[in-house]
Structures are given as structure tokens and as C-alpha cells.
Design goal:
globular; 8-stranded antiparallel β-barrel; 10 strands; Lipocalin; two-stranded antiparallel sheet; 9% helix; 138 residues; mainly beta
């Protein structure tokens, strides 16, 4: 039986998954999502201090799929990509939404969405697990 030294194997795996993948598209160089980025593989719920109800929810998968939903809407699957170390974009219907990561840590994600009418800042919190949507008034 051949044994690999655990530290060397772990470092090799980490180096492979932490290296950004560069892809060429029609508009120039873009960076594919990176495995292990602190905002990927985590369910984010938009903060709604005034109403007390959870807002929209987002999940950025490192393989380039984004899931958007809320407690009262259906879900949407979109493609997303990193444009730089702090900029990303995704498709929403027929439009490309570009956003800047203002802040991200294990508990909070703040995005500045560059929309047609101007820039809108959105605050998200990491979803607690388990999480159940509240009953909505009918």
C-alpha cells in the first residue's frame, strides 16, 4: 500500500481549487468563479430591517450557476461570473447585472448593483441552518 504524506496532498488539492480559471468570451477576458471564495456555496438572505421579513435569497455556486429565490416567489437559475477580484455579473432575464462586492465575510455580503437607474446597495446575511420561511399573511 502506497501512502501519500497528508500535508503535501492537502496543499496540492488546495492549490488546485484556489487557482482561478481564466476563460475567453466575446467581450474579453473573464474570470470563472473560484472554488472556496468566501461568498460561494453559501445561502445569502437579503436583510430587511423595516419589515422584519426575509428578502430575496441568493446562492452563488462556484461552478458558475446562481440560484435566486425568496419566501414568496419561485426560483431562478442564472449564469454568473467574476469580472475581477471584486466585480461580478449575472444574467437576469435578458439583462446582465453587474455588481461590486463592497464587503464579504462569513456572516455578511454587501453588493453594489450597477443598474440602469443608478447604483443600489444590497445587504445580505448568511442564512441560518435550518431555515424555514415564515408564514405569509393571506
Amino acid at each position: 500500500m502506497h501512502r501519500f504524506p497528508i500535508p503535501a496532498l492537502a496543499l496540492t488539492v488546495l492549490a488546485l481549487i484556489a487557482t482561478p480559471t481564466v476563460a475567453q468570451d466575446g467581450e474579453g477576458l473573464t474570470f470563472a468563479p473560484v472554488v472556496g471564495s468566501s461568498f460561494t456555496e453559501k445561502f445569502w438572505i437579503q436583510s430587511q430591517a423595516e419589515s422584519g421579513l426575509p428578502g430575496s435569497m441568493m446562492l452563488f455556486l462556484s461552478e458558475g450557476t446562481m440560484i435566486q429565490t425568496s419566501c414568496w416567489e419561485g426560483y431562478r437559475l442564472s449564469s454568473w461570473q467574476m469580472l475581477s477580484d471584486t466585480a461580478l455579473s449575472w444574467q437576469e432575464d435578458t439583462q446582465t447585472i453587474e455588481a461590486e462586492i463592497i464587503e464579504v465575510d462569513e456572516a455578511e455580503l454587501i453588493l453594489a448593483l450597477h443598474l440602469v437607474d443608478g447604483t443600489v446597495e444590497q445587504h445580505f446575511q448568511s442564512a441560518p441552518v435550518p431555515f424555514v420561511c415564515p408564514d405569509m399573511p393571506r
